Fold each of these.
Amino acid sequence: MIPIAIFIVGIFAGFLGSMLGVGGGFLIVPLLVLILDIPMHLAVGISLTSVVMTSVSSSIIYAKRGLVDFKLGLFLETATTTGALVGSYVALLLPEFILEIIFGIVLIYASFKMILSKSVTEEKKTLESLSRKRLLLGLGGSFIAGMASGMLGIGGGTLKVPILVLILGIATKTAIATSTFMIGLTASVASLTYQAHGLIDPIQVAFIILGIFIGVFIGSHIAMKIKSLTLKRMFGVILFFFALRMLLKGIGVNI
Amino acid sequence: MKVHDIYSKIMNTLLYISILGVGVGVIVYYVNRIFSEPIIIFALGILTISPFIGMLALGYYYIRKKDYKTILNIIIVMIIALLNLINLWLRK
């Protein structure tokens, strides 16, 4: 029964992750822990490998369609990975609840901006066409996003897509595609550590991986067909619930 | 060949090897659990290191294109990712 339930969780996470450019860790961990009663450390291990799977399979589909901006992704990833490394040390100095409240508020603001955005023609922007000011803001935002993932153990997608769309003004579909490419490397580092320390159950991971493979195929093909504005608003709604959960956790209410 | 084609071809090959491994592992699991685990672990290992191999493929492409700024970004990302790996490894 449990393998089939994990397989279904995988389909759901892969579908949503590929469609919105997120890893889906914020969705997988609560589902595995609260519904399937899997211990937290195993759920985190499963989630990290799942994020790698979502990233690899979605980025292949988006790359085939020429949607991934590799140059921009690599440029921003330098700041994100540095931020993650710095964040893991800063986390020792700052209480977690303060960070959760700050990021919760910032992300709720970003979610409203995405939900309330109006239909405009999205320009095709590249790394070369962006102004120096925007690039610096994007780098700063990516560094902070990396720090957040290092400090709070959250994935990148929920933070990377708003940076690409709201700060750099990248088209929503390109932002989602580039984000799926970027999250893979960050998650693979953490996943390798979990695997090397034997903190994963290979059988459970196998079932979720097969589910994600199917979910990603459906999700990425639907994402190609729906309008950018609809995708942006859908992302905003998911981001709102993610941010609200983080904010509530910060003030001591666990959902 | 475009960068998107090189990346998707290499990653597609790695993805299908790992999916095949996981699939075989799941089938073997219903016969003998002990034999299935090493197959799945091997497949997961390939899947997990594939983003690094993807980066190397991108590095190869941009070296041929002589795009030194992007090559520098790839080197920085790879070095910091390895530092992160060491950092996480020591803390666990």
Amino acid sequence: MFKALSDFFDSYGNMLISSIFIHLKFVFISVAIGFIIAFILGILLSRVPKLSVILIPILSIFQTIPGLVFIGVLFLYLGIKDITVIIALAIYAIFPILKNTYVGLISVDKKIIEAAQGCGMNPFQVLWKIEIPLAMPSIISGLRMSTIYTVSWAVLAAMIGLGGLGEFVYRGIETNNTTLILGGAIPSAIIAILLGYLIDKVQYHFTPRGLRKEP
Amino acid sequence: METEAVMQHLGLVCVSFIFTAIFGLLLGIIGYNFKRTRFIILWFVDILQTIPVLALLGIIMIFFGATFRTVVIGIVLYSLLPVVRNTIVGLEQIDPAIREAAIGMGMTKRQRLYKIEFPLAFPIIFTGLKISVITSIGIAVFGAVVGGGGLGYTINRAIMIQDGNTLFKATLALVLMSLAFDLIMGLIEKKLDYSKRRGSV
Amino acid sequence: MIEFKNVKKAYQDNVVIEDLSFTINDGEFVCIIGPSGCGKTTTLKMINRLHKVNGGEILIDGTNINDIDVNELRKSIGYVIQHIGLFPNMNVKQNISVVPTLLKWSKDKIDLRIKELMKMINMPFDEFAYKYPNELSGGQQQRVGVLRALAANPNIILMDEPFGALDPITRDVLQDELRNIHDQLKKTIIFVTHDMDEAVKMADRILFLDGGKILQYATPEEMLKNPGTPLIREFLGKISYDYNASDLTCEDVMRKRVYTVYNKERTLKCTSIMKQRDVASLVVVDHNNRYLGIIRIEDIKSEGVPGETIEKLIRKEDITVLINSNARDAFSELEKDNKEYLVVLKRDRQVAGIITRSSMAKALASLIWGENDV
């Protein structure tokens, strides 16, 4: 067992490290882009709830299309480029964040908003000082979901030969090599778990003390 | 040829759904009844989701080879989370007063589960099942890599030979499938809406 | 001065207020009351433009409110709503300083102001300033809500059933405090309520609305003497002048609602009840509701052992009064060591009620102005 492990690192150690970095690069860039777009869209959508009746179901349909197809389609148009993967993953990352931002914002108690208006806050101040802080826990949990999914979907980058941990998985499946599959699967699961944990910490930090459940 | 792929895909989804429902409900009920197992069960189904689908399928393939069975197991493992979580949440959110009333009437734990708690939790549990089916349609696409056939095979090949037309058709089929499942299960959900009945009591 | 001139308000085709005209003088405490749907909250919210006026005009010190920037207007008017409305993401200090911050006061000035305000209602700054709303009792939250409205020293304060969600005892205390604040600061307060007792207790003038029209606008005394319509009379309750102060018994002046606990109750439970009800002590009874003594928060804090029953901590030395004894005796007893309340017992020592200063005052008020259902 130990020998298998050391053999694995001997032959693939460097590749593993660079793959992890490529993987992380895809995840971070796409989630960051996805987050910004989703956050802004979520705020806009919450200003016009009528629009969301149409938009949210459309996005839901988008979400049911497997990432594979997405990367495939973009690949046909854009070719083997990082941007192909990043766009596909970013689109995926948008939905959970958008939905949680929207839901978080519209579920802020109307009385609280009225109190804020009554204090003389303009709409921007109400949004910035009251609504967003109160929706923050929901927004961050959307971010957590997106990040974990993206780590998982980023494996697909290897499908069009762009590396990342998917490289191990694909090669492993093709050559029926257990060690290679696990070599891709385990680090990617660990990354997902670690990022999830990190975001939990961030979420705790961003949750106003007055809203934390535990004393 | 394409009908065949669609049928194969549906087969994967339906067979997996049966197992997901059985195991998901079972795990959910266990987690609800034995508080100590709850954390472990939720942790387990949560961790499963963090493993990339493809890798998960690859690992299962090591044990079961490139077969239909491998894909089904993969789909089941991957779509357990919504069912388990919603079962536990659904059972948990029942008004303690109702539960107390049932205990007061002398119902055993098992009777309570079948006659009171499960029916009341059903709308939420059903939502979990719905999410799980929709997810599994997407997951099944990956089945092609480990010999599961279905639309995943069509899509993969279309990408290889850069056949945009077929890729589009296959994608459309997937989306329609998701929509159909969503619609059908939404209708069933409405029919079974216990919460509305509860409101009229 | 606030003037309503032929104000009209409609939601789509539904006319809520047709032609409303009245004046509120500076420093006046006006309660707006009426049956639900009478337009009282709408009237209030039109003043800070949370609701738009559809016709006529509202003037503050001669200026039409529509000519003032809406956010400037709101910053210059304090606003307290029902169900508290504190911002849950901000602590007490941040909540109170919302408007001063919007007005860009300096940090030092804000700090000074908050300390001054918290002192006024006996909430020690060090203890409460950094607590969050969910760490306060209902009464404390509503106090902070009132302070938030007062923070920037507005001349006008609007209150929309601010004490509606509180239990009767806390409500009583807060009413007293608010009345004190008003007497000290002489702000113009417009206070919506559906509780006639509250209106009579608090208001300089009561504005009685029904169907968006004024039925009567008068001082409480005037309204009690000459209720304008049968509806107002109904709100005021049955009027009776046959009482004589010396005939009053403890039963007449007590409040029936008492927070009791059993002597076998555990300390933690007691403190949680106290916290919930915002009281410092509870009446202890046995299982037959017979009086045993008083349990005080400070005794639990200093001597209580978590998980133990309160039996050893019960104070038995407090004086009690019998239900049929003369109210005047009870009153002098209450005055003697400045007691918070007196426990009233039936002959078999079951607890009948408690007498507090405000229950006494209410009884006397009803004697003078006619009886309400207390």
